[in-house]
């Protein structure tokens, strides 16, 4: 059960077909620029698009990143016989609009399918190594099927689902209160509440870089001396980083900005090794693609305390394949994988045993 065993004939045929048709990119959010630069144009996987459109707003520019802008109504009137649409927005944001806009006769793909296809082609040996690192058959099945679903656009899959992320499951039944739970990506506090119910004696050192959610959490848990809320980013070192709170979307897509020009906000970033005092019994990370850096910043703590690790893999393809390698190369943990959503593209967690 390896990634190299996957039948990618359908995607190869789709890529050839796209080169013979008009390519429309649907969705002009923050993912658009990177997708165009990496995959579209001369000598790349996909041809230069005919146009960019957006169904959520009117785009004032005539071009975006060198691609002409077309109104969504114009795209709707194009012929499905000679047009291919690739969604370049979030994985679920545009799905409901397909039927209401009568686009169901068009061949429509999501950009993540091509990202996954390209990543596998370039890194197949390492991807296969990751499956071999997993300790049980169910982990291997879930791990491969999750990527297979992205490749073929299957965004819902109840067969992958497992309840109770991080703890309260058969891997981590009861939280160990001999040390603290370091939890990053605390968001609205639902997992902190679960931790308290799981073991009222647990100490939680939580990190939430969103200002509004951090304030909410500080107020929510102000009467519990075992809960500490930090309005900081976990990172490989202590520094300040450009950060987008994503307030317009309730912080669901809050993230570190690689381009500081995209936000005026900065947030303090800290390393677990330098910031967290005392024994750590578990580290749980859901930090929107910063997991590798947060792990590097916890290397001394991991070597000293050998905490259980629960690390989200799903934010980037590189995380999905590099994090198991990173952990296995620097520790003697056994690795298992669980998937905690009926949505097949989010909430995939790597566990150490």
What topology emerges from the helices and strands here?
Blueprint: H1 9-18, E1 22-26, H2 32-39, E2 51-53, E3 63-64, E4 67-68, H3 72-76, E5 83-87, H4 95-100, E6 108-110, H5 111-133, H6 137-151, E7 180-184, H7 190-198, E8 203-207, H8 211-220, E9 227-230, E10 233-234, E11 239-244, E12 255-256, E13 266-270, H9 272-275, E14 280-285, H10 291-296, H11 299-305, E15 308-312, H12 317-329, E16 335-339, E17 348-352
Parallel strand pairs: 1-2, 1-5, 5-6, 7-8, 7-14, 8-9, 10-13, 14-15
Antiparallel strand pairs: 3-4, 11-12, 11-13, 15-17, 16-17
Helix pairs in contact: 5-6, 5-12
Which features would summarize this protein structure in a list?
globular; 33% helix; alpha/beta; 2 domains; Rossmann fold; 353 residues; 12 helices; 17 strands
Summarize the model shown:
By secondary structure, this protein is an alpha/beta fold.
Write a structural description:
With 353 residues, the chain is α/β, with parallel strands linked by helices. The protein folds into two domains: 3-113, Rossmann fold (3-Layer(aba) Sandwich), CATH 3.40.50.20; 125-352, Vaccinia Virus protein VP39 (Rossmann fold), CATH 3.40.50. The protein is built from twelve helices and 17 strands. It has helices at 9-18, 32-39, 72-76, 95-100, 111-133, 137-151, 190-198, 211-220, 272-275, 291-296, 299-305, 317-329, and strands at residues 22-26, 51-53, 63-64, 67-68, 83-87, 108-110, 180-184, 203-207, 227-230, 233-234, 239-244, 255-256, 266-270, 280-285, 308-312, 335-339, 348-352. The strands form four sheets. The chain has a seven-stranded mixed sheet with strand order 9-8-7-14-15-17-16. Strands 2-1-5-6 form a four-stranded parallel sheet. Helix 4 (95-100) links the parallel strand 5 and strand 6. It is globular and about 65 Å long.
């Amino acid at each position: 059960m390896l990634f190299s065993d996957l039948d990618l004939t359908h995607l190869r045929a789709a890529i050839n077909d796209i080169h013979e048709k008009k390519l429309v990119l649907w969705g002009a959010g923050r993912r658009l620029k990177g997708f165009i630069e990496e995959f579209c144009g001369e000598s790349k996987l996909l041809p230069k698009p005919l146009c960019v459109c957006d169904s959520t707003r009117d785009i004032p520019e005539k071009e975006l990143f060198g691609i002409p802008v077309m109104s969504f109504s114009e795209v709707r009137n194009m012929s499905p016989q000679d047009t291919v649409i690739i969604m370049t927005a979030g994985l679920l944001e545009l799905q409901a609009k397909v039927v209401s806009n009568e686009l169901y006769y068009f061949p429509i793909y999501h950009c993540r399918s091509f990202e996954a296809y390209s990543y596998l082609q370039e890194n197949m040996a390492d991807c296969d190594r990751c499956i071999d690192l997993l300790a049980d058959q169910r982990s291997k099945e879930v791990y491969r099927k999750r990527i297979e679903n992205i490749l073929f656009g299957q965004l819902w899959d109840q067969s992958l689902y497992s309840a109770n992320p991080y703890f309260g499951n058969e891997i981590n039944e009861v939280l160990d209160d001999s040390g603290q739970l370091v939890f990053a990506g605390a968001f609205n506090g639902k997992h902190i509440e679960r931790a308290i119910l799981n073991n009222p004696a647990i100490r939680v050192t939580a990190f939430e870089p969103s200002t509004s959610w951090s304030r909410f959490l500080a107020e929510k848990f102000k009467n519990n001396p075992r809960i500490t809320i930090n309005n900081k980013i976990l990172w490989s070192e202590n520094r300040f980083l450009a950060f987008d709170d994503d307030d317009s979307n309730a912080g669901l897509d809050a993230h570190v900005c690689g381009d500081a020009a995209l936000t005026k906000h900065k947030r303090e970033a800290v390393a677990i090794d330098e910031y967290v005092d005392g024994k750590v019994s578990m580290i749980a990370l859901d930090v929107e693609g910063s997991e590798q850096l947060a792990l590097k910043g916890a290397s001394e703590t991991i070597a000293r305390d050998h905490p259980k690790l629960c690390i989200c893999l799903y934010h980037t393809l590189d995380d999905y394949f590099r994090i198991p390698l990173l952990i296995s190369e620097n520790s003697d943990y056994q690795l298992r994988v669980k998937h905690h959503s009926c949505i097949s593209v989010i909430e995939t967690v790597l566990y150490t045993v």
